[in-house]
Amino acid sequence: MTxxxxxxxxxxxxxxxxxxxxxxxxxxxxxxxxxxxxxGHRAKKNDSLDDHYLGGRALxxxxxxxxxxxxxxxxxxxxxxxxxxxRGGFVTIASVLAMMAVVGGYFIYAPKLYRRSHRRRYITxxxxxxxxxxxxxxxxxxxxxxxxxLGNYVLTNLLALGKVSVVVSGGRxxxxxxxxxxxxxxxxxxxxxxxxxVAWTDVTQGIILLLSLALLAFGLFVxxxxxxxxxxxxxxARPTVWDPPAxxxxxxxxxxxxxxxxGISLYxxxxxRVYAARDERTLRRSLMVxxxxxxxxxxxxxxxxxxxxxxFPGMEGKTSDRTTMLMVGRLVEELPALALLGPxxxxxxxxxxxxxxxxxxxxxxxxxxxxxYRPLRPASSQAVLTRVGKATSLALMAAVVWVTILLxxxxxxxxxxxxxxxxxxVAPAVMLGVHWRxxxxxxxxxxxxxxxxxxxxxxLGGFGGGKPLGFHPGIWGLAANVAALxxxxxxxxxxxxxxxxxxxx
Length: 505
Hints:
Elements: H1 20-42, H2 49-54, H3 61-72, H4 75-88, H5 94-120, H6 125-133, H7 136-168, H8 175-223, H9 226-229, H10 231-237, H11 247-263, H12 268-276, H13 280-290, H14 293-296, H15 298-311, H16 323-334, H17 341-373, H18 382-406, H19 412-423, H20 427-432, H21 441-461, H22 473-491
Helix pairs in contact: 1-8, 1-17, 3-8, 3-13, 3-17, 4-7, 4-15, 4-17, 5-11, 5-13, 6-7, 7-8, 7-17, 7-18, 7-19, 7-21, 8-17, 8-18, 10-15, 11-19, 16-17, 17-18, 19-22, 21-22
């Protein structure tokens, strides 16, 4: 066991730069994604929304678990979580519990929603909202919130792709070039085979993720002895690193867990995976295994970020988002036996990021074609709706690539928080809606509008340092959401389940 020596703040492109062999490995991996996309296209049974967006509702345990895993752990995890741990220290260990809370969120609504979706043949989150509440206004509002959150999700993960590519190429590949090329690859295989291609690529990506984490854990805990191995250097670089959290920080821990529970578990592409399960037993088994994955994923990544404090002191702001690649470069340099770690971890970061982006793209295109375009053109065939969805993917990716290049200096963690502040406002419609049969659409609409307004106002206004009393704006918004929902529900005459006549779809 050894301890990695402390080093001055890194130069602009310092970190793990791959050699020719590593570049070939990554090139083969990226080529395989295009091949899987083509195979998914060949396996399509028809041009229906059901087949393109849900893979025929036939995902078994292995595929469903790995696609849930690869989608939940993204570039946000490998880059954003590690950078946040470097900036925040040991208090960010609460991220592990927050990620476990996500699966708790699924268990609140997923089994009951699956049974309903199996009977009613839902494609999107909007299908459930419209069928349950019969309100076009509510459906459009929640679909727009979902699209905003997923657009932000694509943005943060494209940022991660660009930042990693710059470091591993030693600055030879520009941020802009990497983002554009990788975006084209994702659009290609996502539009070719839809959910089937996305799920199949997620299997490959999930396996690479698990292999890379095993190698990383070996390097961190065996070679440098875990946090204890660099304890002195951490204390010297940041004397407060061992300080217990203040009361406000503990409230922020709780807030983060709640934000993840009500936000991440309601990602529209996660909801679609609930629909796509082969049966309810498969869904439950996959979620039960997912509960334990933060212990072998988030924990390893957070500890790596904390340990980097003593090894690469002095990084600030956006520079700390390079912590992952800096640590990998140092581990490979210090321990030649870990030479495989570099290329595999780079592939893992690419895999985690791309699996998230393709899933988000698929969900957005389905909501645009099914929830926004279809009501305006009810006579459209399934093939036309599928083509509209594919065109949406292309247009959206082009727009997000442009915004990503403009915002490349933002930290990934903060952008991730912003989307969850808004997405959490969808939770009452789903989590209460599947259990509370008397819940009516005016109450849900009033709650969603109120909660979104509060969350946006607090976020833009920066009140309380961005987290009044330690709680995220999204949690304050959710509290206002539920309060408004209850008030309007109590004040609305009980004129049936929805209060308006059923609209055609």
